[in-house]
């Protein structure tokens, strides 16, 4: 193993931060903590919807030199503007940059570029989840940095377990992985550092069993019928309010 691609993500001193970015909980956590530690072969970023995990990952990607639309490091897909460009930056390691940035929302359009670069492959003929697995299995290797935004999207629970095994294998061989996920399965990646961002703008380093996703799934499986009935009743009561 030859070190890491990135060690941390830090605010740029005296940078002009757009007002709405300053209100994003994950960015407030970055400002408050002074850095997001990435000194691990696998780092998982988790937390509720809307806390800014994907925005943060995109900021890390563009700071590393990836196209903000996603794709391979050398991809020429049209750029998207990123609100964190210039206001935060990665502390780089000593490895030459290469890898892949998987964005859930632009994966379909970037897949066209992948098809052109890989003869005989048509990701558009696969489901979203299967196309993600194909890229991981066929293109990820020991010498890359892999940034993944909710790669579990479109995958069954069993296929998420397959993805867990694939990511663990490539990380064990020397790759570095930073992923945003809600999946308790992917949060169980052996050796991963788990950082959970809160709606209050804090960042917590947690064990798997302490994460919101794991606790919610555990509680649901412990009383599936009771929780399902409760949620239906709560929603019905809200809809009936005058």
Automatic annotation (TrEMBL):
Alphabetized UniProt keyword annotations: Cell membrane, Ion transport, Iron, Iron transport, Membrane, Transport
Source species, domain of life: Bacteria
Database matches in CDD domains: ABC_ATPase (cd00267)
An annotated Gene Ontology molecular function: ATP hydrolysis activity
InterPro entries in the cross-refs: AAA+_ATPase, ATPase_AAA_core, P-loop_NTPase, Rad50/SbcC_AAA, Siderophore_ABC-ATPase
GO aspect biological process, one term: double-strand break repair
Any GO CC annotation of this UniProt entry: plasma membrane
Keyword Transmembrane assigned: no
Protein name: AAA family ATPase
Originating species: Corynebacterium humireducens
């Amino acid at each position: 193993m030859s070190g890491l691609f990135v060690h941390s993500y830090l605010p740029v001193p005296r940078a002009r931060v757009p007002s709405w970015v300053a209100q994003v909980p994950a960015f407030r956590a970055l400002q408050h903590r002074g850095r997001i530690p990435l000194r691990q072969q696998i780092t998982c970023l988790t937390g509720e919807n809307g806390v800014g995990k994907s925005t943060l990952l995109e900021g890390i990607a563009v700071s590393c030199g990836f196209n903000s639309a996603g794709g391979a490091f050398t991809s020429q897909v049209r750029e998207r503007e990123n609100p964190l460009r210039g206001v935060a930056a990665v502390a780089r390691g000593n490895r030459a940059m290469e890898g892949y940035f998987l964005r859930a929302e632009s994966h379909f359009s970037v897949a066209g570029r992948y098809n052109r670069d890989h003869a005989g492959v048509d990701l558009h003929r696969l489901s979203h989840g299967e196309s993600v697995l194909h890229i991981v299995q066929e293109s990820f290797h020991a010498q890359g940095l892999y940034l993944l935004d909710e790669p579990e999207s479109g995958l069954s629970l069993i296929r998420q377990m397959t993805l867990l095994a694939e990511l663990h294998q490539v990380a064990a061989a020397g790759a570095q992985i930073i992923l945003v996920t809600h999946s308790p399965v992917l949060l169980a990646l052996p050796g991963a550092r788990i950082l959970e961002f809160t709606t209050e703008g804090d960042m917590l380093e947690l064990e798997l069993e302490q994460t919101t996703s794991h606790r919610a799934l555990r509680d649901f499986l412990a009383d599936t019928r009771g929780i399902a009935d409760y949620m239906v009743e709560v929603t019905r009561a809200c809809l009936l309010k005058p």
